Predict the structure.
Amino acid sequence: MNKYLYDVVIIGGGPAGLSTGIKLAQKGLKTLLIERGRFCGAKNLFGGVVYTSSIKEIVPEFPEVDPSPVERPVTEEGYFFLSKEGVVKILHTKKRADESFTALRAKFDAFLSEYALKKGIDLAPKTKVIDFIRNNGFIEGVIVDRPTSFEDPSPATIKAKVVVIAEGVNRLLTEKAGLVTKTFEPEEVVLAVKEVLQLPKGELEARFGLSNNQGLAVEIFGEITKGLPGTGFLYTNKTTISFGIGIFLKSLMDLNLKPYEILEYAKLHPYFRELFKGSETLEYGAHLIPEWGIKGLPKPYGNGVLVVGDAAGLVNPLFREGTNLAIYSGLMAAEAIFYAFEKGDFTERSLRRYEELFKDSFIYKDLVMLKDLKTFLLSNSHLFQVYPEMIYDICSLYFSAQGRYKRDVIREIFGIIKKKRGYWGILRDFVKIGRFLW
Ligand SMILES: Cc1cc2nc3c(=O)[nH]c(=O)nc-3n(C[C@H](O)[C@H](O)[C@H](O)COP(=O)(O)OP(=O)(O)OC[C@H]3O[C@@H](n4cnc5c(N)ncnc54)[C@H](O)[C@@H]3O)c2cc1C
């Protein structure tokens, strides 16, 4: 058997794996990153928006980099409440235009991997890790889906002192490493589908009222998911739009719904039909989002192994945070690895350092705060059905100026509230939401 020796092997070239690699390279650790895709980003899909503060931790010169890995600065951000008939928009213009950017993963991850290569890590694309080399309860490297040599067709092995699992949401290897007992249940993941739409040339900025260095990021509630617990999203890229939906897998399975049908249905909504008129679908894809929360986190360390990013369940769906948490977890993993190298001890005694750093971080505190999020959303699905319709109906009346006595209009508005949810119902919802967030 062929045996290579690295200090660290990282499985997965998403933001978690790449940030770990970039940080490790700073101290000259011999690091190999293995990515199953043709290049980093080739297989990855997100909304999405990336956040400057986290990227600067690994690429200090960002966003002043050439070529740019991002699309547009997010200058306008907010929510759309979509009813069957129309939309109510709440948008705010951001104080700072450089806090976040829209991005496409094929470009963003590829940029980070080029950067990591320049910093000195090795990269093995088109290679899939299929198992680990184990020795007396220790993980001592990985086994990949490539033959050892022309003469020896058995899978190649690569030895390392520490293996970092950055495989994303599927966490098959995390399970193989014995750090979780099961992958996930349908109520623990959101299934997202997304299309990248190209508008006729020059139309994007005109349709969204943007100049060439402005961008829009919107989350959409209500009819976009047919009122199911989940959201839609719309982000403007340089010349395209990222448009998609994410719905709890359990809700889709219960109702036997296919997410693509819901997305197609959303595109037929009068508002989006007009907005996307003449557009062409360039890409589409589907991906899971981990929502197992703090209660379902894997043990993030073991003897010779650490887990980072989505594989560790580090997503904050309420605040649309994922890539940044992946990056921060990669940095914390690298710190723990430095500590282990200082001590010359790669057992879980040293690598536990990662969990200590994690528990001290805002990521852990946020996950604790949102510990009941999925239960809350799944058991309050009316929030996604009733409110967008009600808000739209109220706005339609309020802004109608139809030559009526305004007290009658206000009475009608109260009538809508009473009919759709009832005053007590609304009060109960506010108390529930308040309690949940506090
Ligand atoms: C629809 C959608 C919208 C989102 N929107 C946003 C957003 O707007 N902003 C945000 O911050 N986050 C967003 N997220 C979340 C964000 O994408 C993730 O949290 C983030 O990508 C996690 O990074 P990661 O490196 O842990 O995993 P991933 O990005 O999934 O990377 C995992 C990598 O591991 C590779 N891999 C897997 N198994 C193997 C193997 N056996 N061998 C070799 N390689 C392997 C994969 O090919 C992949 O490259 C969104 C997610 C989705 C699905």
